[in-house]
Amino acid sequence: MQRIIGLFGLFVILALAWLLSENRRRMNWRLIFSGLLLQFAVAVVLLKTAVGRQLFDSFQSFTEQILGFSDRGAEFVFGAGFREHYFAFSVLPTIIFVASATAVLFHLGIIQWVVKGMAWVMLRVMNVSGTESLAAAAEVFVGMTESPLLIRPYLASMTRSEIMAMMTAGMGTVAGGVLAVYVAMGVPAGHLLAASLMAAPASLVVAKMMVPETEDSPTKGTVRIEVPRTDRNVLDAACRGAGEGLKLALNVGAMIIALIALVACVNTLLGLLGNWGGAPLSLERVLGWLFAPLAWALGVEWSEARTVGMLMGKKTILNEMLAYQDLVALSDQLSARTRVIATFALCGFANLGSVAVQIGGISGLAPERRPIFAQYGLKAMIGGTLATFMTAAIAGILVE
């Protein structure tokens, strides 16, 4: 029954995207249905086949090895007792190592090759343009402000629909470096991999419904990456990546401290209103009530919908890292199927704080398009949220 409800949830998500559309008459239904089929194809392979299970196991082992490499460096700097302060001295250093490794892979052209392959598949299957398919594919590996570097020469000439697609993909996906952090926190790597791969076409589907293409794209039917090398050699790339990773790790640490403190402050203020339903009012309870119907529509049992709704709300209002932290802590209280749906629903950068980060980052690459970036900032966040919920609904349909 819950799997059938997941179909209803998928319809609800598509209906919301349709209601928010700028031009319902110009929707490309072939693109929408082919994007849905592509997501189902990826989900079936990864979630329902022996090949998918083998990929899950391999990816889990691979990420555990990466975390082990990061721990070696953390132990050298912080000492053998570094795990006593696990988040600060193990989770955050993972960001530094992965950022350094990503910079090396970027310098060697490996990431560009993989991104180009993914973009080619989406271009052929969904008939999208080269720039938006490249941007969506790149978001799986790098962040929402880094992926536009792959299409920087085209930012000035991108159509409004392509800009919306690029920004929505940034909100609907997570960067590879941050994905490793979620694994370090205890989230299954395989489900994160599936969610990330499905999020790229899901973001394009939602974006193309909300802002249909009405202009001629100069990159229609082509996939071309033009990124000049900025590092002299592999060592230079590794050092630069480590420096950027350090900035990101410090930013993440500061953000976590501030947001947890903010939640505690809000809960104290809400507690002054007294007990509601036999317990003090809190931000988590309010978000649970608001998002519970949507969690149920994704295929979650109603008895667990309030808990998952709280996680979805916390991810949207605050960020996905706090939501994943709570998901891991609450794992024993949720069924295996619900944990899978929640993992997919939380796998994206779409939150209120990301709007300013994205607009500021992309505007630096194309200042003349800043008004359009600002116009679509909040809309892209909503689109990215719908995209992650779409992948969760599909996972709920397939997972028993």
What does this structure look like?
With 400 residues, the protein is an all-alpha fold. It has one domain (2-223, 243-398). It is 73% helix and 1% strand. The protein has 16 helices and two strands. It has helices at residues 2-19, 29-48, 50-78, 86-108, 110-126, 130-139, 160-172, 176-185, 189-210, 234-271, 283-297, 302-317, 320-329, 336-345, 352-363, 370-398, and strands spanning 275-276, 279-280. The chain has a two-stranded antiparallel ribbon. A hairpin with a 2-residue loop joins β1 and β2. α5 crosses α6 (130-139), α6 (130-139) runs parallel beside α7 and α7 crosses α16 (370-398). The protein is globular. The N and C termini lie close together (10 Å).
Give a concise summary.
73% of the residues lie in helices and 1% in strands. With 400 residues, it is mainly α.
State the main characteristics:
single chain, 16 helices, 400 residues, mainly alpha, globular
